[in-house]
Predict the structure.
Amino acid sequence: MVGFLNAFKPKGVTSHDVIDELRKKLKTKKIGHAGTLDPFAEGVLVIGISGATRLLEYLKNEKKRYYVKAILGLITETFDITGQVKEERVCQKSNDEIKDAILSFKGKYKQVPPAYSAKKYNGERLYKLAREGKIISLPPVEVEIYEIENIKIVPPEFSFEVVVSPGTYIRSLCMDIGYKLGCGATAVELVRKSVGKFSIKDSINPFELSSEQIVNRILRVEEVLDLPKVEIYKDYVEKIFNGVQPTMDFVKEIKDDFRKDQDVMLVCDGRLVAIAVSQRTSSFLKKNEVRESVFKLKKVFREGMF
């Protein structure tokens, strides 16, 4: 049970509730996820199980696709429908003006994280501080909106699909669109449709499946990570487990091209042995005889891999 799971988080539960359900059914505490979903939202939650929790960092930078529906003229403290209503306004903009405002956010822009979010400030989650009446205003962060499509406008509501960079808050995007129109806006539906290669159509709901069914849907690490692979001779695997820095004697085959200082997967018979940092380019290693260590070990995976 080492790998990743494409989980579906239903509405009304927290991301941590999904983790707790999986811990109970898989009988392991070593489970984590690669990005929180708000309780009112649903969709893809990428899960790391056992040793794969140490690899979630490689999935946190994946692009994400969302479907969102928002209502113009409604402002809540959380920027979503679950929050206390702070203000209501009338939006008198035309459909064309609303569409133009939505599309104007395509590209890079500075976004202020919502006060009610899982982002941390001095080690504390913002939403916990906010509930205590301590509203923290963090500086804006540059995010990127790659695509905005399937826009539908039925005033006072609008909806669209959007592909965004990591760290983008869709609630904040909706509110920023509303502010640009002079009336504010609040997200009322939010669905995360994909995270990188993880799609909602392939996701599973842990609350609806048995332990055995869940185990059968765990994806091997080697299938998921998009890192260059280097095949290692079996005789040298134990040396890597003992912390010996690999030389070219360890290398059976360089399967993919890589740059100097790039993370690569050291594998043996298709199984991950370690993540290491390349000390030379793949093209250099293929053409030159190198006697010193050529990879610097970063993460070694003895448990569950063999």
Q: What stands out?
A: The CA atoms of residues 53 and 84 lie 35 Å apart.
